[in-house]
Design brief:
With 339 residues, this protein is mostly helical. It contains 13 helices and 5 strands. Bound molecules: adenosine-5'-tetraphosphate.
Length: 339
């Protein structure tokens, strides 16, 4: 069986490469999500056939209250619209509106050795964080592969923390295509300039489940409080001690993305011309100012009745023909359903 070219999303310009990415509605969007992935979601919608999903099936692995999951899903749509996703230029979808993602996950499960999943770094990390060791947690990367390939997406904007998952998606595609013929293209990760953003502890990945985030739409006072609590260079005890930007999450990393003068800021720390407190105050001011227009936009959107369901319905209508066609090919290749 030969691979059928992906069909352009109806209503969008033709012959562009397809992009897919998902974000879990497991908490409020944070700096890691924005710098690692959302900034690219916005940039890529201009040049690609872009599909972005709020992946609520995935969030079931950590959010165990139905009302809360619905609320977080609604909030995440508002976050994504506020950072700049334009429903006229991309498709914004809710994963569970397309149960075929779960069906394809099952089919892919049959080509994936369990050992591939057990060695996934995020599986080990989440277990260390105390997340329930459910089948869903283990199977997370297979559902992620299904999310991507059901649309035959070839580009996947994700944070660098997702590199191993994307590599696994590619392995899964190869395993499926080896068994059944060339049905799916191999997706490729697209990264921003940002390294994996560390949390306010300065030590572990900024992550909703780790509770160490700076939410981008928190109130300005809360953002300031969180930035001021960030751990900097642990060896810089006194104001007069020289700092080491290479180990400091504030001047060594985050200042890079909120102002063009980060080299001077790093020099100020290295020579003890400036102290951590003023460098954090400046960072807080800049983060608050950067997200202010998005915060205003978000407040307007939140006050617009029905907007979230309207956007999700439009997104679902755009992408449904694509996944119906892919599932027809999958059924045909593996031999389920009628021809
Ligand atoms: N700290 C980070 N640095 C860079 N990129 C990050 N991303 C998440 N954290 C960082 C990127 O954000 C996108 C959406 O991620 P997600 O919310 O679906 O899941 P995640 O990667 O597991 O993010 P969290 O905050 O850690 O969520 P929980 O705690 O619920 O699992 C992805 O592209 C991710 O790379």
């Amino acid at each position: 069986m030969t691979q059928t070219a992906a069909q352009p999303i109806s209503g969008l310009p033709q012959a562009r490469e397809r992009v897919f990415s998902g974000i879990q509605p497991s908490g409020a969007s944070h700096l890691g999500n924005y710098l690692g992935a959302q900034a690219n979601y916005v940039a890529m919608q201009a040049e690609y056939d872009a599909i972005y999903a709020i992946v609520d099936y995935h969030a079931l692995t950590t959010v165990h209250d139905g009302e809360e999951l619905r609320r977080l899903t609604h909030e995440m749509v508002l976050d994504l619209l506020a950072v700049g996703l334009d429903p006229d230029r991309c498709a914004l979808i809710r994963q569970s509106d397309m149960p075929e993602h779960a069906e394809l996950c099952w089919v892919l499960n049959t080509v994936v050795p369990v050992s591939w999943l057990e060695r996934t770094p995020t599986y080990k990390e989440k277990r260390q964080q105390g997340v329930d060791n459910s089948m869903g947690l283990l199977d997370y990367p297979v559902l992620q592969a299904a999310d991507i390939v059901i649309y035959k997406a070839t580009r996947v904007p994700v944070g660098k923390d997702q590199a191993a998952h994307l590599e696994l998606s590619r392995e899964i595609v190869r395993a499926f295509n080896r068994r059944y013929g060339s049905v799916f293209p191999e997706p490729q990760a697209v990264y921003t300039e940002s390294p994996v953003v560390l949390g306010i502890d300065g030590a572990t990945k900024m992550s909703k489940s780790a509770g160490n985030t700076i939410p981008i739409f928190a109130e300005p006072d809360e953002i300031r409080r969180l930035v001021m609590s960030m751990v900097t260079d642990p060896l810089r005890i006194k104001r007069t001690d020289p700092g080491r930007p290479e180990v400091c999450n504030v001047c060594g990393n985050l200042h890079r993305f909120f102002g063009g003068d980060y080299l001077q800021i790093q020099d100020g720390e290295r020579t003890a011309r400036t102290g951590c407190v003023e460098t954090k105050q400046l960072l807080a001011d800049r983060i608050i100012a950067f997200f202010e227009p998005m915060r205003e936009r978000r407040a307007e959107l939140a006050a617009t009745p029905g907007i979230v369901e309207e956007v999700l319905a439009a997104g679902a209508a755009k992408v449904r023909p694509l996944l119906v066609e892919t599932m027809r090919e999958v059924h045909d290749a593996v031999g389920i359903g009628t021809r």
